[in-house]
Specification:
about 950 residues, about 15% strand
Amino acid sequence: MALSLRLTPLALSVLFLAANPATAQTARPAAAPPTAAVPVDRSPWLYAGSDIAHDPEWRFGTLPNGLRYAVRRNGVPPGQVAVRLHLRVGSLMEEESEKGFAHLLEHLSFRGSSKVPDGESKRVWQRLGVTFGSDSNASTTPLSTTYKLDLPNATEASFDQSMMILADMMAAPNITTQSLNQERPVVLAEQREGLGPQERFSDLRRRVFFAGQRFADRPVIGTVETLTGATADAVRAFHQRWYRPDRTTLVIVGDLDPAIFEAQIVKHFAAWKGTGPAPVDPAFGTPSGGHPSSGALVEPTLPPLVAMTVLRPWKLDADTVMFNRERMVDIVAIRIINRRLERRARAGSSYIGAGADLSDLLRSANATTIQILPVGEDWETAVREVRGVIADAMASAPTQAEIDREVNEILADLRNAVETARVTSGTQRADTLVAALDIHEVVTSEETSLGILQGAIDGRMFTPERVLASTRRVLQGVATRAVITTRTPDPGVQAKLAAALTADVSGLAGTRAALRNVSFASLPRLGSPGKVAMRAVAVPDPRIEQVRYANGVTGLFFQNPGEVGRVYVSVRFGRGMQALPANRQTPAWAANLALLESGIGSLGQEELDQITGDRRISMDFGIGDDAFVISGQTSPADLADQLRLIATKLEVPGWDPKPVARARAVATTSYAAQRASPDAVIGTSLEKLLRAGDPRWGMPDLSEIEKLNAKDFRAFWEPLLASGPIEVQVFGDIDVEKAIEAVRQTFGAMKPRRASRIVSAAVQFPAHVETPVVLRHTGEAEQAAAVIAWQAGGGAANIAEGRKLEILAAVMRDRILDRIRSAEGVSYSPTVLSQWPVGQPGGGRIIALTLLPPDKTDLFFTVVREIAADLVAKPIELDELRRALVPTAQLVSRRSTGNPFWMQQTEGGTTDPRRLAAIQSLGIDYGRTGPEELQALAAKYLLREKDWTMVVLPEETPAAPVAGAR
């Protein structure tokens, strides 16, 4: 793509570091001795038994040892190679004493192997530009384990080295008592940090929905008993049984010749042999009657929630054209039900939200699952109302207009996929194929997928009669089960649930609403198009143009055909957080839930969905530091109407009161969850505390939420929607002349707006505290969180310093991971963030935070302060700098190939030209950062007397959950 070489100074600096003898410590794979040619079966194994057309971009192979692979070339982002190593082993393969072993083994494989010392793989990949946790990671499911590597700036040599490491991780990991004892606390920390109300509800669903099947008692994380009882011999035996080439699939997609991928697979994996006879997958079981049909859980912090499922046996159907066409009819049937449920929720019903889903679950069941979130505590009325809608869908056919609406939206999505196929990322392609492996699906080209749907349309498969038959089929099965959460104990709740699920609901659905005849012509009219008053080049490289219209609206335009078929629009208006008062609570918090949903003119959200559903048009709202933002992603063909939609929202907003009531209900019912766990407390309180209690950040208390009403909401937001200045960014696959004209026809036709005044410009960082601020959560007694932060800068005056602080944060993050996670084993997820808000002078901060046991918070603060003091005291070694700088620089380089990166860099640039000027120093700011400069930044910011600390500790007596099944 055109932007792949934008950061030339950065690339040169990275090359300098790579060539520096002081940092060239990365071991290279030894040259392989000459070997006989390995015969590879190149038949397309993925398509066995399927009549779906093969995607010719994929190349397939099977080695003599049974290892399968699929590779293809992809240059999105440029230079990157995505590797996915998929093993058919997950928690469903574990015996009783081995629960959690598949996930534990995933952890141990990263610790070291016969050729790679403990922890060295992370350091090798960091030198190659890999960010730990995002570019290199792994995941375990009930069915499989997948190792993931996104290798940036890949060369044949770096790919060769990476494949050597991966192959040795699989064949010969260091499973010793020492490595097990080092990693076991990390896995136990992950298990501890995951405990909470949501996890308990998921466990209840698993036990009830899969009763009588293997998955009912196979949590991926395992149990404390099996993890603490694990021995090196037992884990090694598990590895030898399941880690085998004949259970392995390698998927590689990236910006190198696929022949290189195939050659390296053969080189590093052909010699791998399984130990002993190949194991047979255990029986997963099938759903049947005779098991508990319901379960209940008391969770004071969770809103009442009902989940019910209709189960059918899963069977291995061939993934054929006709199978997919019939599944599309099923999907349309489910979409119609969900559309009707959402329409009722928007109109004001007994439930806040409800929806159905059709899925194949873990090769264990085919299920239709329905979830219901009631308004308040009256879940029984909500269940009956939802069941009434479903009963009506099963009783009589939908209209052809309803069917056509859903089919046209699916058709639009598939056409969009065809148009943008060239810019689908390699990671997405690799992940899509890996996901297909677990349920024996195939993948094909976007054109073929569109053709399958078009064939179903041409074959008149989407008729009212066929959709009705599909509706009845997917809502019937061999077993129906349900679970519920309540805030308080109710001994009769399961009997009430059974009654609600069998009650007569005939007539509750009411009369089906007919679709209105609406189109974009139904939107309010804008004024006469304005004139272009000024046009100039704002940024020469990449070329970004700036326009000012006669009414004061400004625009930034960037033609980047590298993202073919995609256009990004961002409209900034007013002053954002700076327009909100800092001395009182306002209804600003409800905007994300109610502002866009309140409609445009006389059109509500239902009508807006109707006119945009089969178009690539969307709207999202956000409050930035110095502007409010409405954004959307569209296509070249839909750009003019995308702009018109946002412009009319700002010029003639609607004020439907029902979304405000729904927002109040959502916030009220979820209020208790804000204290349900340490991370929940951090999510709702930290931003406010880091700004010295400023009410513009964070949620109000419950009494303020309950006061929210449509009148006050409108009175607050109406003048803000009318505020200026307005800046429009249009980036992507555009014709610049046509884009400038489209903005002239829409935003240029709006009434002139004055720049609104800044109400609250300054933000305050909290003062240093000798003892941490203490907050309390209502969750697990063994859970806590710790946060330490330092004030940094912000604003456009010194953006370069903010970029360099990202590298300093990367150094701190790596050291804290090594100490807190790898060495101490007290936390699974410590991290460090550097934030430099360009629109908020003085609002920046460096934050280190983690979840951990309550008695380890002091240890965390001690370790972080020791690391900070060391960074202040002396410059870091060049190799450590390289392992922080290269991944940071590569991450920036990859992001720079996409339009959102450049939108972020230039936003607000028409009113603050310093932001545009700072683009030219991007490469220098990252690439020319040296050890002494990082030391100076540490000395400037990371001082003991300037830090602020907080802990989140459990309450004295957390509420105990009560669960039952019948």
